[in-house]
Write a structure and sequence with these properties.
single chain, mainly alpha
Length: 149
């Protein structure tokens, strides 16, 4: 009996594609374009794992901050992203209860851990940093200029 239930669940999970796969290629491309525009507006986008590392909190705490509307979330291709600028403001506000400031080696380690958490959408858009957002803004401006001609 349990094997029949397990087999039915596996079949159902195989037949139900992930949110990203449900979108057609054109819809995915449009979603990536919207992600790029948002990335430019927000100075970059971080996924939840990267935001947790930057804020020196757990991923669960980042989800709590999202639930409390202390951070704004953006959803692209079925994934949650946060504004680089908002995360930086929150980190700089130093709302940590009694924690000492990070040392240089701790900051370097956190940056390396965050870089290791890049996902496919971020890589396609060129990364998460404000520099990548500026490059993307230039690219989008060129595309709009070509479209007007």
């Amino acid at each position: 009996m349990t094997t029949a239930i397990t087999a039915a669940l596996e079949t159902a999970s195989e037949n139900s594609p992930s949110p990203q796969r449900r979108l057609s290629k054109a819809e995915q491309r449009a979603e990536l374009d919207r992600m790029g525009e948002t990335m430019v507006e927000q100075g970059g986008l971080l996924n939840v794992a990267q935001a947790a590392i930057a804020l020196d909190v757990s991923r669960e705490r980042v989800y709590e901050l999202l639930g409390l509307c202390l951070l704004k979330k953006f959803e692209f291709l079925g994934r949650i992203y946060l504004s680089f600028d908002q995360v930086k403001e929150r980190r700089d506000a130093d709302v940590k209860a009694g924690r000492p400031p990070r040392t240089l080696p701790q900051r370097i380690k956190a940056n390396l851990k965050a870089a290791a958490q890049l996902d496919g959408g971020q890589i396609k858009r060129g990364g998460t940093t404000p520099y990548a957002a500026r490059l993307l803004a230039k690219e989008l401006a060129k595309k709009k200029a070509k479209g007007k001609k």
